[in-house]
User: Fold Ferredoxin from Rhodovulum euryhalinum.
Amino acid sequence: MTYVVTDNCIACKYTDCVEVCPVDCFYEGENMLVIHPDECIDCGVCEPECPADAIRPDTEPDMDAWVEFNRQYALVWPVIITRKDPLPEATERDGETGKREKYFSEAPGQGG
Ligand code: SF4
Ligand code: F3S
Assistant:
C-alpha cells in the first residue's frame, strides 16, 4: 500500500505535506508534488495535512492510475523536504475539476 498525490494538488501545491513525511518521499514538479510509491511507508500522517485534500491511500477506488502517475514523475523530479509558499493561484484553483487536463506541467520543480 502507498499514499499518492492526486488531481487537486495541481496548480495549488501547498507543500504542507512535505514537512511531516518521515522518509522524505515527496518529489516536486512545476505545479504539483508526487509521492514515490516504493519509498512511502504508509504512515498516513501527510493525508490530513493537505489543505486541498489531494493525498489519498491507494486502497480507494480507481487509484491504480494515480500510483503509476506518482511513480513516473517521482523518478524524474527532484525531492522536496522543505515547505514553500503555495502557488499564487492556489486559492482560486482549489477544488476545480479536470485540473490534470487543464494545468498539469511535466516540468520539474526546484526541489529543496
Ligand atoms: Fe510520507 Fe507517510 Fe505520507 Fe507516505 S503516508 S508520503 S511516508 S507522510
Ligand atoms: Fe499538494 Fe497538498 Fe502537498 S496541495 S503539495 S499534496 S499539501
User: Anything to note?
Assistant: The chain has one domain: 3-87. Residues 5, 9, 12-17, 33, 50, 52, 54-55 surround FE3-S4 cluster (ligand 2) (CB under 6 Å).
